[in-house]
Amino acid sequence: MTSLHIMDKNGSRLDNETMAMLQNRAISTILPTVYSLVFIISVPGNLFALWVLCFHIKPKTSSVIFMINLSITDLMLAFCLPFQIKYHINHNNWLFGKNLCSLVTVMFYSNMYSSILTMTCISLERYLGVVHPMKPVKWRKKRYAVATCLGMWAFVLLALYPLESTDLTYEVTQLNITTCFDVLKWEMLPNIPAWATFLLTLVVILFLIPFIVTVVCYIRIIRKLIQASNKYGNGQKTRSIYLAVIVLLTFIICFAPNNFILLAHVINRLFFNKSYYPAYKLTLCLSCMNNCIDPFIYYYASKEFYQKFKQVIGQQALLSDSMENRRESLFSGRTVSVRSMSSGHAEGLDAVKACLERKESVF
Asked: Which residue from 97, 256, 301, 311 has the highest number of Cβ atoms inside 10 Å of its Cβ?
């Protein structure tokens, strides 16, 4: 984010803490290394996932629309990383001009928060499919998913408007460098309450509330699947529970540290003149690592994706294996476990009918 060095009207020099942060060797070494690995892994992974989602998965349910949006979001964030890599390799010296600094910064953070919101929408979809399969699904049509994605992007870009309308570069004459979004100018916002409102909006509305919703949804999904007897089939139920746990832990590990440290940093910087910025910068690595994990936990957990991957690398699956893959797919709405239909319970039959009607997965 930013060290939030707030200059007085006469333009004071940067304080010693901010200067030390800009010369921190750990940041100049760790961030480019991690960003490079994320770029190398996430770009081909998300391109492949996007290809399969767009051209090989039908019908395009609301869940698929959200996953397409998540894949696009991950790719856009990944394409910002080469600029960040070059910036940190040059010891926090930005060489690409103020316009590109603003563009890369807005893209980086808008895609990160859009990813959080999209993951929350996916968790809500799965929660309704597993915990409340009989609830009306009219609003879960494809057009509503598209509208939700567009609304998320509009809200995130509106929240980041101060970044879009401000020169985010700052010349540090003492070090002969120009920073990009590491030192913000006081005139970006009129006063401390405005700064607090802006930054707490990012933390509370764009992270904390979606974080709580996601945690609650996945906890209830896991509880429902554990309580289920034969409704989803033992193999599918076990894999669904494991995937839910992985997604939940990924959300907590990738996004929680960065945003909680941001909250502590903002409060201490604005009111106590203390900083946790080096720790915040390092936890940005965790946020970006989500780009690498998304293709595996959301897409390749689907048997359709696994099957397509085997075809791409030249392996032909047996017909029986293909049928089993489709029968147990976590995201296939066209197949339901035989155990569910043979259970004889009215609830199981109703759930099967609901799933067939929606053509969506129970997870």
From this structure: 301
Q: 316-360 pLDDT, tens per residue?
A: 444 444 444 444 444 433 333 333 333 444 444 444 444 444 444
Q: Which two tokens stand for residue 153?
A: 């992007």
Dihedral angle computed from the Cα positions of residues 117, 118, 123 and 124, in that order, rounded to the nearest 10 degrees: 80
Residues ≥6 apart with Cβ < 8 Å to 120: 210, 213, 214
Query: What is the tens place of the pLDDT at every residue in 45-97?
Result: 899 888 888 887 777 878 788 889 989 999 998 999 999 999 999 989 999 98
> Which residue in 89, 81, 96 sits closest to 25, CA to CA?
89
**One-letter amino acid for residue 193 of the chain:** P
Q: Is 21 exposed, middle or buried (0-12, 13-18, 19+ CB in 10 A)?
A: buried
What the block records as the tokens of 191 is 């006063």
Rounded to an integer, what distance in angstroms lies between the CA atom of residue 265 and that of residue 280?
Answer: 8
Picking from 221, 243, 216, the residue whose alpha carbon sits closest to that of residue 132 is 221
C-alpha closest to that of 343 among 237, 230, 234: 230
Domains of the chain plus CATH, in order, are 16-223+246-290 (1.20.1070.10)
φ, ψ dihedrals at 177, nearest 5°:
-135, 160
Q: Taking the alpha carbons of 64, 66, 68, 74 in that order, is the dihedral positive or negative?
A: negative
